[in-house]
Amino acid sequence: MTELPALIAAFTTMFIIIDPPGLAPVFIALTQGMTPAQRRAIAVRACIVSAVLMIIFLFLGETVLGFIGISMDAFRIAGGVLLFLTALDMLFQRRQARREDSAAEGQAEHHDDPSVFPLALPLIVGPGAITTIILLAGQAEGAADFGAIAGVLMAVLLIVLAAFLAAPAIERALGKTGLNIVTRVLGMLLAALAVQFVLDGLRGFGIGG
Fold this sequence. Notes:
Mean pLDDT: 84
Order of helices and strands: HHHHHHHHH
Strand content: under 5%
Oligomer: single chain
Shape: globular
Largest sheet: none
């Protein structure tokens, strides 16, 4: 897992799942009317909370699966199916609509600080991200691998933070059409990665060589 290709694959998967460019307009909607300082504080808090949640799932997720009797191969197949459904949502723009609905609900319930809900959970650390983190943890073979995965997660979160801080500029630069194109391209890549997870799980059961 410490090899460069594996790290690039892990980074790509997490980047596609979290989709920082897609989160930028949601962040703008949640922080409308706030000062730049307030926006920065919310962005930083959301990423810190997300980092804590990711580390918890990285180190304890597989233990929880073992406790309830689910093998990693079974989880890979289930996770691959879930990620494929997420990819379909991205391709047909259903994912962004749900995110905006969740953002609107969170804004109604938490007028002052949306950093924990809905930004950190479930918009950044959603079901797809949790699934991917546990799958990556299942590939780790030692402390170095876990450290490498944690580094990948933090790198993605730094990009999320940068996207939040630059959200107004990103929205102006890409426009709605540009954001839609980026989301669909990422959806195609995620679909391919999801199929790979399913194939890996089937191989673990001795199916498909």
